[in-house]
Amino acid sequence: MTCQLTPIYLCIIIGLVLVKAITIQQTTLCTGPHCEAQAKEYLDHTYEAAASQEYNKVVLADWDYNTDVLNKTAEDNSKKANIALAEFILKEYEDNIKQYDWESFSDSSSVKRQLKFLNGIGTAALKGEDLEKYNNVLADMNKIYATATVCPFDDQTCEDEKRLPLEPDLEHIIATSTNYDELTYIWKGWRESSGKKVRELYSEYVNYGNKAALANGYPNLGQFWIRTYESKTFQDDIEKLWLDVKDLYEELHAYVRFRLIAKFPANVVDGEPIPASVLGNMWAQSWDNIFPDVVPFPDAPIFDVTPALKKVNLVVKTWR
Prior knowledge:
By secondary structure, this protein is mainly α. The protein has helices at residues 8-27, 33-66, 72-95, 110-118, 128-147, 166-176, 180-193, 195-215, 221-226, 234-263, 291-294, 306-311, and strands at residues 149-150, 164-165.
């Protein structure tokens, strides 16, 4: 359209009308029962099949890389598969998912909940160089974690070929050693070889995650993660759960510390935190391996339900 021979005010009016029409076209969402049925058809018969293929490619590529982290070809294939998945998620969101007014759909509909989560596209919101750098950071952190090694306690200046990996060696030492100095050395050494080297990369990871969260309409990555719990009071919920178990946990903690003082009298101190290195697990997240040291009644028979289950001919099936 040319305005050279048209009164300027008419050009302005026509321009405003066109802008308004474009805005309406861009912001109008598909709503109502008809759109809900249409969305279900799309999710069940189009998105599900395509997404399954893309996710399967990522799982296979990541498996190849995670089981051979020094293989450059496997690393590149993993990055390509993850970038392709992100591009697929973004395209489906732009072309299909965002057109539906999912909040207007029936509360009892699975479609509403599916679209609610699919509208949060995560790091797929990153584009171009940011998406590539994000995947590079993930790959580099994974490689550092998987290849971190520590020299044996009795040969702390060992050659590279004698260094011990996390699995199975370091985990076995943490689970079975009764030497406090060895446990401390292994616990610190692995973190020097892994966490310390990952620190700067992790900061980059958080920055990209926060950038993606903002693009998804959330203030930061933490808030984007919390959305999956579907609770507007999530942090208060967790605080309440903690307060519910706090007294029991403090008693359990004190009891375990008491028993470990007997095992490490010079190193575990009454009234102070338990050193994480003596809890039988590299991350102190499970205390199963120290059960023999802290079992309350070591001479009491262990309760075993197996005979009772066999008596009623219970059949156990494993699902994969």
